[in-house]
Design a protein that fits this description.
Distance between the termini: 39 Å
Shape: globular
Number of helices: 15
Mean pLDDT: 86
CATH class: Mainly Alpha
Oligomer: single chain
CATH architecture: Up-down Bundle
Order of helices and strands: HHHHHHHHHHHHHHH
CATH topology: Growth Hormone, Chain: A
Low-confidence stretches: 350-360
Helix content: over 70%
Amino acid sequence: MSAIAGTAYAVSVPVWGHLGDVTLGRARAYQVAALGAGVVMLAYSAPLPSVLLAVVVVGFFVFESAFAPLGDALAVSLLPDPGRQYGRVRLLMSLSFAFTAIAAGFLYNQVGYGMVPLLWALGAGATALVLVPLTRVRQRREVRRAGVRGGSIGVALAAQPRLRGILVAIALVYVGISGAATFLALRLVALGGQPSDLALSSGLGALAEVPGILLATWAARRLGLRTLFCASAIVYCACIISWTVLDVPLVIIATRALSGVAFAGLWIACVLTMRVLLPQTLQASGQALYQTVAAGIATVLGNVIGGVIYEQIGAGLFAVLGVIGLVGAVVAWVTLPGGAESRAGLAPDARRAGEAAAPA
């Protein structure tokens, strides 16, 4: 089910990127996605047969796939100095996720999971409402296909050939992360973990993203996006490999603090890499490419590979996933922007000049 949903996610994200850059605008496309996700989640609470519930899950991922790329595109396009300021915006996501996940875990201990669709629908409606002022912000839409297939996604890949190698690196690292995230929950349950333990695992990881984002924002400017990505990937993969041998839920949960810091570094590195390599008019498409690979294709591969291997060797799966992620770090070292290129691309004045001169 996770692999099928991941496939739906991977197919949908490029469409949202095109809608955000070319058709609806980023804020309006985000509103449509939020309202669609809310409606689908309400349908999930209905007494439907399991087959129809599976269809609803896939539909949810189609709409939810728009959130990260469109949100990041809005942030890096509207902030005057995204190299310094994007991290402060991204902090809000980590904090809200952490507190909500932990609170929801203890709530579901008492009332079960029936509250999930209602809470989701309320949050989606509030998101659509908050986006209303941003729909009035004028957005440059100068993307012309010029014979390139694939809409704005095709234009982005044609304009920046390096993206292909970067996407391979991202895919390998996130295959390890996605597979580990899915099967870590199963391992915690097998070791006697409760819903609150799963919530603490996710919540602690998200809380650790807060200092991780601050550190990553500094490292992106001082050390470069390549160093930030590779260091974060190595740390996260070390945590994944440790889950092969750790068998105490609280100890595993404690490692999520370190993996949360590393995850923040990867997110910042990927978002700002698209900001550096692509013009403003292609930011939704660039962020969509990142999310297509990281949360779509990698999720499918991580869950398919993980499902087969976990049945055969159990916790040994985490060692395999960690090694796959480390291979991605090697590819990233060859393809991502180095220190000088990162500093030049993230400098606000230079970036504005680059956008003015960049071909549409």
